[in-house]
Design goal:
single chain; mainly alpha
Length: 171
């Protein structure tokens, strides 16, 4: 096997590993979406139980516990997303190097932007990083859980709901 064949084999391996890392990112996100959905459903059930005629303080405690669990899950999801993006970038750099070495140009480089315009809102085309959007969504989800935990906690009674920006957005 000559050097060029070795370079092509390395390129194949690196490209497959990069693709595998991207697949892992979405598999992990799906896993955390499932936990978030379960926690959201449990929180909604506890919230509905609070509004019944036979409600006790236990349902508010359950809301708080579920919201804390939802936050922990979302926080871990945030970290996992960032770690996955890191490894995706590592393999993208290796793919860039392997592509340049094997064929003399970078197959994975971003194309030049000449002539590309963003127009025809709302159906425009633009370069958004889907993994960064998913990370932003996990950050937002953690913020929602913090807000729900605050609303279900005893500390919520210390401040009027209309004076707290996050709490007033949800009331």
């Amino acid at each position: 096997m000559d050097q060029q064949e070795k370079d092509f084999e390395v390129l194949k391996l690196v490209a497959e590993t990069r693709k595998f890392e991207i697949g892992l990112f979405w598999s992990r996100s799906l896993f955390f979406w499932g936990f978030t959905t379960i926690a959201g459903t449990a929180y909604g059930a506890a919230y509905a139980a609070t509004n019944t005629a036979t409600a006790t303080g236990a349902s508010t405690n359950i809301q708080f516990i579920v919201a804390c669990g939802g936050f922990i899950c979302s926080f871990i999801w945030m970290l996992v997303n960032r770690s996955s993006k890191y490894w995706q970038k590592v393999w993208e750099e290796k793919a860039d190097e392997a592509s340049t070495k094997a064929i003399g140009s970078n197959l994975f480089a971003e194309p030049p932007r000449k002539g590309l315009t963003v127009c025809n809102f709302p159906w425009w085309s633009a370069h958004f990083s889907v993994s960064k959007l998913a990370t932003a969504f996990s950050d937002f989800t953690a913020l929602v859980w913090v807000t729900l935990a605050y609303r279900a906690s005893p500390a919520a009674g210390l401040f009027p709901a209309n004076k707290v920006l996050l709490a007033s957005a949800l009331t």
